[in-house]
Amino acid sequence: MTHQNSVVFVVDDDASVRRSLALLVESAGWQVNTFGSAQEFLSFPGVSCSSCLVLDLDLPDVDGLELQKRVAGRRDMPIIFISGHGNVATTVRAMKGGAMEFLTKPLSSDMLLDAIHQALERSSASLAQAAALHSLRLRHDSLTAREREVMALVVSGLLNKQIGARLGISEITVKAHRGSMMRKMSAASLAHLVNMAGTLGVPADDPEVQIRFVAQREAAMAGTARAL
Description:
CATH superfamily of the largest domain: Response regulator
CATH architecture of the largest domain: 3-Layer(aba) Sandwich
Number of domains: 2
Shape: elongated
Structural class: alpha/beta
Radius of gyration: 24 Å
Strand order of the largest sheet: 2-1-3-4-5
CATH class of the largest domain: Alpha Beta
Order of helices and strands: EHEHEHEHEHHHHHH
Number of strands: 5
Number of helices: 10
Distance between the termini: 30 Å
Strand content: 5-15%
């Protein structure tokens, strides 16, 4: 099995450990980049593919827990801690900081490879989610100001006639804006549009409309759950 589009970063100050881990990772088909310190890793440019970080707890400059804090924003790069003398308190800190796994040396090859596989799967899912959100925002940005107003009122549960009265336009004009908006958003249904609006955070400010929006979204989510 090959995973040419996935990268495993290894940060460990022990050169022999870096070499053995690099060989193990490469034997599983993943790309690998090794670093002897946190600063070396931080100087390395990020990647756009799925990735994970195998991180030694004890490093000469910035320790593993501090490095974890510095890269906390990179949710698409799960962290697997490794240490020769981890304790419960340290493990808890690492896991609370978002680490995916904490393994003690000497490392079990199977356990490490399994952890890497799961981390890369999570990374891929995170990247896919980010790409979908970016695409959704671009579609919403393509709407005209009027189409955005219509969208906000549609997902609030208002009928075309009510939207027309709210905006001071005819029902026919509302239908035209609504059709254009649905096409640009690639919305297959009202429930689909409601979920999109929830993701984008575009409900109307009117308290009554907000209540209807929440109810509409919950109904849509319930329908999706039943379909699954």
